[in-house]
Structures are given as C-alpha cells and as structure tokens.
Write a structure and sequence with these properties.
This protein is an alpha+beta fold and 171 residues long. It has helices at 48-60, 130-136, 140-154, and strands at residues 9-16, 21-27, 34-35, 37-40, 74-84, 99-108, 122-129, 157-159, 163-165. The protein is globular and about 45 Å long. GO terms for molecular function: dATP diphosphatase activity; dihydroneopterin triphosphate pyrophosphohydrolase activity; metal ion binding.
Length: 171
C-alpha cells in the first residue's frame, strides 16, 4: 500500500539549551544538509504542537512531557512561513502542491544531551552556539529562525494556569 501524500503543513523545532547552544541534525538523504527538527502533520486535524512533540520524539528520542523536558519547555512562536518545496521532494505531496507552510517552535532542554537519531532520517548530530548553528544550516529559513531565537525567547511569557504563551504573532 503506497504512503498517502504528505500534508503541506509542517513544523520547525529549534532545540536549544539555556545557554543557546542549538542541536543540528544531518539529513540521511543529503550529506552536509544540517537542520533543526522538521516534520509534517500526519493528519489535517493534528494540532501543530502535537506534530512538534511527535517529530522531536521520532527524530531525536527526546520525550516532551517528562521530568527532563516538560511540555512547558515547548514554545509555539505563533509564526509561520510559506516556502517552495524543493523539486526533488515534490513527489511526496499531491500533484500540483508546490508550497509548504512551516510553523516555528523552540524547545529548551536543560543541557546538551545525547539524542537517539532515526537512522532513515539523520546520520549525525551536533550542538553548536546558536550563531554558528545558523551558519551551518542548509536552509536559509532555518538559519533565520535560529538567529531569531534570543529575541523570541525574550518575548516569551508564562501563564501560571496554562503554561507558555506566545509573545508575538506572525503570519
């Protein structure tokens, strides 16, 4: 049975420490293509935060919602971009789909931690200071998101009743 077409709604999750060291993953299908965690919704009605939690778990083994990384460590930036899907990846989507909407999140972990990679997706990982991490990203939008990390975190507020709230709204 063939895989269903990918949904052109995805997340980008920048995993970082309090010192702003950022985790980058090297793609298995593109050597030297370093990126943050990314992934598409599995279902149209899947909440974006659930997509982020699932993708982080699948790609790194980091389980959001436990003692080490509580759910409140995930920050929805309430920001998205539309980008053109690379031609070599368009076969994964329905015919005629050219653009994907990517929603940005960050996840703070307590320190540089070891991760468990999904070997079909990634072959290596590294932790770098955020500016250096941005310079290593293949995707300019991923680099831009990483460079925005200090400003985005500075705008974050916490609601004691319900957890993190976004500090600003994007697209």
């Amino acid at each position: 049975m063939p895989k269903p077409p990918k949904i052109p709604q995805s997340v980008l999750v920048i995993i970082h420490t309090p010192a702003l060291d950022v985790l980058l993953l090297e793609r298995a299908d593109h050597a030297a293509f370093w990126q943050s965690v990314t992934g598409s919704k599995d279902r149209l009605d899947e909440p974006l935060a659930d997509t982020a939690v699932r993708e982080v778990g699948e790609e790194t083994g980091i389980m959001i919602g436990g003692a080490l990384v509580p759910r409140s460590a995930l920050f929805d930036w309430q920001y998205s971009i539309d980008y053109e899907i690379y031609p070599e990846f368009r076969y994964r989507y329905e015919a005629g789909v050219l653009y994907n909407t990517e929603h940005w999140f960050s996840l703070q972990v307590p320190e540089r931690i070891d991760v468990s990679l999904a070997p079909r997706e990634h072959t290596a990982y590294m932790w770098l200071p955020y500016e250096e991490a941005a310079s290593r990203c293949f995707s300019s939008s991923n680099a831009d998101a990483i460079l925005q990390l200090p400003r985005r975190l500075a705008t974050r507020t916490i609601d004691p009743q319900s957890g993190p709230l976004a500090g600003e709204r994007g697209q």
